[in-house]
Amino acid sequence: MTTGEHSPVSSSPTHPVAVVSGQTLTAAEARYVDAARAANTVRGYRADWTDFTTWCDTAGHTPLPADPATLTGYLTHLAARGLKVGTISRRLSAITFAHTVHDLPDPTTGARVLAVWEGIRRTHTTPPVQALPLMPPLLHDVLDACPATRTWASADRDPEPDLAGLRDRALLLIGFVTALRRSELAALDVVHFAEHPRGLVLSIGRSKTNQTGAQPELVVIPHGGHPRRCPVTALRAWLDAADITTGPVFRPVSKGNHALNRRLHPESVNTLVRNAIRRAGANPAGYSAHSLRAGFVTHAHLRGASDRAIAHQTRHRSLATLGTYVRIHTVWDDNAATQLGL
Q: What is the mean pLDDT of residues 223-231?
């Protein structure tokens, strides 16, 4: 065992495990704590804990351990600011986690806190804002609007494949057919794809519903019947043109038309989807990276796929969850309100 494995790792603001101050871990312990939760979760906890401690400093309260009056005061403060119930719930989770790593009792389970929290939930809960589904025929227009060739003002440089356009086409098609979440799209590596006579097979090691990765989830990417809408062809065109053989699949493209040696940030996937819709002359409001996943579910349902077949690709654990994607498109089916003759 190396010396570094015995050396303490303090909870500095830059360390991934630094959710609370004053916690000391060995390097080996810190690595395992980091692995216990997704990086996005830890980053969120750190930001939420910072918000709570800042409020405590301002209000003159002790954040650790936090007493019930401190928590209920903080909750009502957040509700008064108009924060969403989901955001407030995440703040409570961060406070629970902070106390847990200090071996302190969870302060969020007391009767006073639960009563105030239940009242906030009943008063302020609103229906979630769902991303609009991106699917044909709009998806086809968006794909057609992706630039294929890049020209230069200088006569010394010949026209060449537009890498950003090729990447966007591949991202849209792969995102739609696989119904991946934006974090999963950004995390894709070349090694995750395997050749198959009918297309490609994608292996997802970890996901929102498979945190440990004990059993990789398989997602199929079939060959498309239309050459310009084939996800396999689009992916290969992007990888070949960008000369990507290993590492991240989807990467930023420089102004000089070169693929950079780093992966896209998940939030960048949102931006790319909206920009692609805007290029097609459509209003991108209401669309996001999740629109590809929603579009797959909705389009597959409208084409007669069963919920079980859709869940096989989307990896939904609950078939009931699929209904939230397609309800607005099926509410008109066999509905007596359409037969009133008004």
A: 87
